Amino acid sequence: MHIEYDRENDTAYVSLVEHIADGAAVRQIPVDGVGADAEVFLDVDASGRLLGIEVIGAGGALPAEVLEQSATG
């Protein structure tokens, strides 16, 4: 698992696999109930396997220690 955090845009991406090839995430599933200031999407491949999690508004949705330990973009 690898987490990248873009401070400028307050977005985080949690990769659950080592590498996600271009076009591998064929479906983005929105997740409800995370919070008023955050949006979360699950990226899945053609077989329905979860590849990663995108968090928009990550500063309000993820613990500060997770963001501090992430790679920054």
Brief digest:
The protein is mainly beta and 73 residues long.
Describe this entry's structure for a reader.
The protein has about 70 residues and is mainly beta. It has one domain (about 1-70). About 15% of the residues lie in helices and about 40% in strands. It is built from two helices and six strands. The chain has helices at about 60, 65-70, and strands spanning about 1-5, 10-15, 25-30, 40-45, 50-55, 70. The protein has a six-stranded mixed sheet. A hairpin with a 4-residue loop joins β1 (about 1-5) and β2 (about 10-15). The longest helix has 6 residues, at about 65-70. The radius of gyration is 12 Å and the shape is globular. The mean pLDDT is about 90. InterPro entries: DUF2283.
Which structural traits does this protein have?
73 residues, 2 helices
Low-confidence stretches: none
Whole-number average pLDDT? 91
Number of helices: 2
Order of helices and strands: EEEEEHHE
* Major β-sheet strand ordering: 3-4-5-2-1-6
Number of domains as seen in the coordinates? 1
Which class of secondary structure composition applies to the elements? Answer: mainly beta
InterPro entries: DUF2283
